Each structure stands twice: as C-alpha cells, then as structure tokens.
Amino acid sequence: MRKFTLLLGLLIGSFAATAADMSEGADNFYKSDKVTQQKVTFKNQYQMTVTGNLFIPKGLDQKAKNPAIIVGHPMGAVKEQSSNLYAQKLAEQGFVTLAIDLSFWGESEGQPRNAVSPDIYAEDFSAAVDYLGTRPFIDRNRIGVLGICGSGSFVISAAKIDPRMKAIATVSMYDMGSANRNALNHSLTLEQRKQIIAAAAEQRYSEFTGGETQYTSGTVDKIDENSSAIEKEFYDFYRTPRGEFTPEGTTPQLTTHPTLTSNVKFMNFYPFNDIETISPRPMLFITGDQAHSKEFSEDAYKRAGQPKELYIVPGAGHVDLYDRTDLIPFARLTSFFQANLK
C-alpha cells in the first residue's frame, strides 16, 4: 500500500460531517437537458493530449461566430468535479463552454500521474484557446476563462501572457504558490517550509532508484471528532457521493493527492506577480464570506488593475461554491461574461 505523506495539512479539507451534505442545492453531477456534450481532445504546446468536455447550447447557430468560456477544475480534482457543473450552467446561458482536465489529472496525458507543474497547467488553458479559436463556430476574439480553486491561480498565470483570454473570472481561488509557501493565514514558518522542501528532495533519491512514489496534501480518507473544520469540508465533497469521482486508471485513495516530489514546484509559483498587466481586460473574483481561502481572492483583487470586481457571497464557504447551486452566483458570472464577451 502506497504511503501518503500528509504535509501541509492546512491545505486539506471545513464545515461538514461524515455523511454527504446535499443541502443548499449541492448538485455536482448536474446534467442539463438544454445543452449537448461531447468529449474533445487537443494537444498543448508540449504535445501532451488534453481532454475536455465541450458543451454547446441546443439550438446554437453554428454558422455564426459565438463566444466561449474555458472552465478549470479545483486543484487535485478533475473536470467531473465542479467544472462540468459550471460549464453546463453557463452553456445554458448561450455560451459554448469547455471544461478541461489539467495535464497529469483525469483523462489528460502526463506522467507521473498527479504531478504538479504550474507552467504546464497554465499552458493547458492557452491550448484550450488554441482549440476553441480554431473552431468555425467560435469567435476567437470572444473567449473567456474561469478557474475554480487552484485553477483560479492557473488562469491568472495563463492570462498574463495570453491576451487572447478576454475576460478572466475565478471562484474560491487558491493561490497555490502562497498556499504552499506560507499555508493559510501565513501560518507556515520558513523553517517548516525548508523541512518540506528537504523531505521532497530526499524522496527524489528514493524514487530515482525505484522506490515507491509518495503523495502529499489532498483530502484525508477518514475524519473523526479531532479532524479540523477544513478537513471535514473537503472530505464532504471529495470522499462522499456529493462529489466523489475516481477517474479510470487510478484509485479512490490516490485522488486529490499530488506527488510529494513535484508538489514543491508550487514554491516557485507566483501567479499574482504582475497581475496588473492583465488590465484593461476585466477580472472578476468570487469568494464566500466564510471561505478559508478568501485571503487569496482579496490579495489578487488588491493587486489587479482595472476593471476588476471582488464579489463576496454571503454565507458561503470555500467548497460551498464548488457545487451548491443555491449559493453559486451564476447570474453574476453570466452578466460578467455577457458584458465582456460581446
């Protein structure tokens, strides 16, 4: 049995019990009867195959040029978790949408599985623009991006060097660089950070010589009365019928856990540096007022240039905005993209 090294415990999992909490409209596996879905594949710049679900509104005039939105899943998740929901809800409003699996995750290529590479993650979004922008029914000048959780930081990283992304939105964003360097509320000391880096470096020797792959962070497999609120929050989504999904070729125990040796790549990831250069393209940051991750959306908003908006959802935690349709502000997302992908 592979060992799971659970470093950076603050990154895992808030507010749920052992049973799935399906209240407040939790509907991760929503299936719309107003859109068509097809699986698509395309190559990123590194010639890795990226897989996505393309959602097209029924009755769309495919002889016209239409706006499109790329949707990225939470870090450690796959397109079937949260991003398919968002993609369908936005497709119901008339957008062509594309929910992608990031490289190394889900159905997209990349070895080893569950590897961390922020640069390649950002590239996947640009490759999705390549794909959409070459479809005859898509207006390449009206393509937006939406990143949920960790993908929020990846779409920002991508948009800084890809002006084809005309409108950028994030939901429950995690700055995966700061989260790993500093943990939540800057609670990780420099000495603790160095210990994590040293452990990952030492593990490289083991794996280089054929040793077992080790994994880190992600969602715990069990909770009890001593589990933290954040552990419980993530557990309720990823380890219960509410949001649990195991891609082909992996196991439930491996889902959400990045490899230990690659996860330190996030230490060199600074997505908010130069975020102001995205201006004058508009940015929308959505977070819950109870979200443990709110600090990241607030930081990005403070640094971003105009036009920008920080939209705070009352009564919502971090994971609530993954799938609770009674809380997710789909109307605000729709108006944002309608206004900026005219």
Unreliable sequence segments: 1-18
* Structural class by helix and strand composition: alpha/beta
Share in β-strands: 15-25%
**Portion of residues within helices:** 25-40%
Tell me the quaternary state.
single chain
Rough shape? globular
- Tell me the series of helices and strands, N- to C-terminal: EEEHEHEHEHHHHEHEHH
Q: Count of DSSP E strands?
A: 8
Question: What's the alpha carbon Rg, rounded to whole Å?
Answer: 19 Å
Please describe the biggest sheet, giving its number of strands, its sense, and whether it closes into a barrel: 8 strands, mixed
- Adjacency order of strands in the biggest sheet: 1-2-4-3-5-6-7-8
Q: Given the structure, what is the number of helices?
A: 10
**Cα-to-Cα separation, first versus last residue:** 53 Å
Mean pLDDT, nearest integer? 94
How would you summarize this macromolecular structure in one to three sentences?
This protein is an alpha/beta fold and 342 residues long.
Annotation keywords:
342 residues; alpha/beta; 10 helices; 29% helix; disordered N terminus
Topology:
Elements: E1 35-43, E2 49-57, E3 66-72, H1 83-91, E4 96-100, H2 118-133, E5 138-148, H3 151-160, E6 165-171, H4 176-182, H5 190-208, H6 229-238, H7 260-263, E7 283-288, H8 294-303, E8 308-313, H9 320-323, H10 330-340
Helix pairs in contact: 2-3
